[in-house]
Queue: 2 jobs
Job 1
Amino acid sequence: MTINIQTPNGQISLTTDVIATVVGAAVTDNYGVVGMVSKSFIRDNITEILKKDNYAKGVVISQDADDEVMVDVYIVVTYGTKISVICQNIQQTVKYNVEQLLGFELSYVNVHVQGVKVD
């Protein structure tokens, strides 16, 4: 799937894998995030943390009829950290990185905490 963005100079088409790589790097750099997991983590009962080449499985990107781009991120956090603060930091970091690196704004960044890792 590609996301199409209209600019004054023309149209830009980005694949979801490119956007997922930028989003995944922004997410995993936040304190308290163990890693990203598949969106069907609970259903599949897979305890595999995604590596850098698999960020697309933990990020869902969609575009609605009004050309607004939305991102859903699926993560596992560290035990003992404040989950609401981690999620807010992820939302801010992802929006900033996508705007600076790819040149368009995200309408929503939804963070889904799929688990808590206890060391």
Note: DSSP finds four helices and six strands in the chain.
Job 2
Amino acid sequence: MIAALTTLWRRALPWLALAAAILLFTLGARRSGETAGRAAERLQHMERTNDALRHMLEAGADRPRDRDDLAQRLRDGKF
């Protein structure tokens, strides 16, 4: 009886180890995918923020310097 159980465990143990390895690999791949997705979202958000900041800086660099410059732009129709 004990010999039959021992033989059964010796045959089942490699299959159980293989199933556990596959399960752990799948869970690890899922977690890695979630982490990569969050990193991609963070990168996309940073790109949008930097783009908006760049547009604001460009607009600030192109602004009239003083009242005379503003008046000249208004006369020229470039504002």
Note: The mean pLDDT is 91.
